[in-house]
Amino acid sequence: DERHRGQVFRRLTHKNSDTPPTTTSPRRAIQFDLVSPVAAHRPFQVELTLDTAKDVLLLRRIALALALAASGGVFLISLGGFVLVWLGLRPLRELSIQINALAADSLHRRVDGSNQPGELAPLIVQFNDLLGRLEASYEQLEGFNADVAHELLTPLATLTSGAELALSSSKDIGELREALGSSLEDLQRIAGIVHDMLFLSQADRGAVARRVESGSLAALARRVADYHDAALADAGLSLEVVGDAAGAFDVSLLQRALSNLISNASRYATRGTSVRVVIQLLSPDEVLLQVQNQGITIDSKVLPRMFDRFFRADSSRCQADRNHGLGLSIVAAIARMHGGRPTASSSGGITAIGMVVMRFGPGTD
């Protein structure tokens, strides 16, 4: 029959079959008409059925197997990923244990990276460098606290003893005035230390110079040198200014820095020699301000510490009653406030201490 040629088996239901299925097993059926060669006017209907129970069961088993395989695969992948991540993070856990063991009293220790993967080596090196800087800063802070206590304790002890002596003895007005004058000097020294420490604290917090267009730096250096004429004459020294430059600077800060440098040079220069203030344009943006003096060559190991607070290279010549060891620290701070850096060198009996500053900066008016 042309009507049923190529027709596939269809699911057998009560709707497409006059005869209900005799079993509950799933079946498929196809119906078509046949013409009897004997009685062509009486075609009869033929139905072919196919039992698909085994096929359905197989499909269900395949679906169940696929579901179990997918679930098992997800579980195994998750478990494998967890194990891999746990193993991969083990070096970080070991580093964490070492880092947690560090304390303020054990900053000298370093993180051991010998058993760590190469990918972590740069991180470990940088972390150990950071520990080194922290150790140096911590030691410097401890030394700074001790130096501050020492610098303040000496004048305070002098004040206390002087006041006790003045109160316990009967003195005339002249002696009391002398005692008060000595106490005033100690108080002024304490005030100077506190003032300098406050200035350094502001510089450490990132204060920048208030720049304005200034004229000749050589003229500025000569004006500062005029304030030191008496001290230079007492030390048997002369002063000369070499070079010149101009730019936008904080003039008051440069005056303070030059004054500290000239004062430092006049204390350590050999009598009868000349102190030189060198002003040199290193580049279109950088200016060198340097004070040179002839004297004893400073040890190369000491030079990096010249700008540390309360550091004195020669305690026997430091004149601690007048100088408290913050002058060069202030010079370094002023250099940083101008976007520059301090410099120090000493060879052949010539010591040169100064700073490199930027001629212009964001603070220019």
Furnish the topology, listing elements before pairings:
Elements: E1 10-11, E2 27-34, E3 44-51, H1 53-88, H2 90-100, H3 121-168, H4 173-204, E4 212-214, H5 217-226, H6 229-234, E5 238-242, E6 247-249, H7 251-268, E7 274-281, E8 286-294, H8 327-337, E9 341-347, E10 350-358
Parallel strand pairs: 5-7
Antiparallel strand pairs: 1-2, 2-3, 4-6, 7-8, 8-10, 9-10
Helix pairs in contact: 3-4, 4-8, 5-7, 7-8
CATH topology of the largest domain: Heat Shock Protein 90
Helix and strand succession? Answer: EEEHHHHEHHEEHEEHEE
Enumerate the spans where pLDDT stays under 50 for 5 or more consecutive residues: 1-9, 12-19
Strand content: 15-25%
**SSE class:** alpha+beta
Please describe what this structure looks like:
This protein is of the alpha+beta class and 365 residues long. It has three domains: 2-84, no CATH class; 120-204, Signal transduction histidine kinase, dimerisation/phosphotransfer (DHp) domain (Helix Hairpins), CATH 1.10.287.130; 212-358, Histidine kinase-like ATPase, C-terminal domain (Heat Shock Protein 90). It is 47% helix and 17% strand. It is built from eight helices and ten strands. The protein has helices at 53-88, 90-100, 121-168, 173-204, 217-226, 229-234, 251-268, 327-337, and strands at 10-11, 27-34, 44-51, 212-214, 238-242, 247-249, 274-281, 286-294, 341-347, 350-358. The strands form three sheets. The protein has a five-stranded mixed sheet. Helix 3 (121-168) runs antiparallel to helix 4 and helix 7 runs antiparallel to helix 8 (327-337). The termini are far apart.
